[in-house]
Amino acid sequence: MEFQLIERIREATAQSREDVHLGIGDDAAVLAVPAGQELAMAIDTLVEGVHFPHGTAPADVGWKALAVNLSDLAAMGASPAWAMLALTLPQPDEAFVEGFAQGFAELARPHRLALVGGDTTRGPLAVSVAIHGFVPTGQALVRGGARAGDAVLVTGTLGDGAAGLRLLQRRDPGLADDPRATYLLERLNRPTPRLAAGMALRGRASACIDVSDGLLADLGHLCAASGVGAEIDVQHLPRSPALLALFDENASIELALSGGDDYELCFTVPAAQVAAVQADLARLGCGATRIGRIVEGRDIAVRDGERPLAPARTGWDHFPA
Ligand code: ADP
Ligand code: MG
Questions:
Q1: Contact 18 CB / ligand 1 (< 6 Å)
Q2: Of 280, 210, 164, which is closest to residue 67 (Cα–Cα)?
Q3: Spans of the chain below 70 pLDDT
Q4: DSSP bridge pairs for 126
Q5: 2-136 has which CATH code?
Q6: Domain 151-309 has CATH 3.90.650.10
Q7: What is the pLDDT of residues 209-263, one digit of tens each?
Q8: Atom 5 (ligand 1) nearest CA
Q9: CB-ligand 1 contact for 222 (6 Å cutoff)
Q10: Cα angle value 166/167/170 (rounded, 5°)
């Protein structure tokens, strides 16, 4: 049974790449890193009931398991190449595996990402994807390079995924036919990793991180790594029409600041380069909005225009104190 499931996954995700000398089927994958490139690697686990709600469509789980990893590569400015998949299933559920593999493959295909191996075991439903990508030697985007005076920008819009989750938790039956609700749920279940944006930021962004745990938490990590503080203005937070239509001003700000599940990039650039970077990212489709600036110190100051704010929650923490 296990081998049939693996075969299903292999077929659904088939992708030929010259740098894959041996993929699924042997004891280990054998892969070639191109000359002049460094390998960027990341791994993320999704656990049912923690990272995705019970009842999430298998195809959405497959998409998201890959998307959150691609988002980590995007934040490094890396281009994706290979993935490995560790699947833990309560039972050998062919329908789940089929749907999962389809959703995974749908996102993998346009990025020419090859699934090169993995592991299949029995236990509570959980999915780990390990991803490997390339970045030209020395050009990886890191968290630690922001300097006082740099502008802080984010791609896309913030708060949509967390808003989608809130709608699910409310179980409002009227929302099923509301295209704005559909949009927010799509953003929750099928986030778009900003790979092209990350690659375009090579050699330009002084620091970069992807927003998975909430803007304040992740900007906090960027600032800590860089030894700087930041000032942001909530009036500048990019929020989608759907978020603004279905949530009031305060809720939309809270979701955009701390909701998490955004998978947008938060990055810093020297102020003189903001316009050029924004023009490039607009061409790539996601755009980038300036939300504040880097300052000396350690703190993140949040303003609403002239009024200082004290946000209640800074983000998602798996092990809160
Ligand atoms: P081993 O016992 O040598 O670890 P397995 O029986 O676990 O090998 O796996 C057989 C092959 O199938 C290996 O190449 C492994 O990488 C691949 N594989 C197993 N599970 C998965 C999975 N969920 N997704 C992709 N490849 C998998
Ligand atoms: Mg094994």
A1: no
A2: 210
A3: 311-321
A4: 47, 88
A5: 3.30.1330.10
A6: yes
A7: 999 999 999 999 999 999 999 999 999 999 999 999 999 999 999 999 999 999 9
A8: 119
A9: no
A10: 90
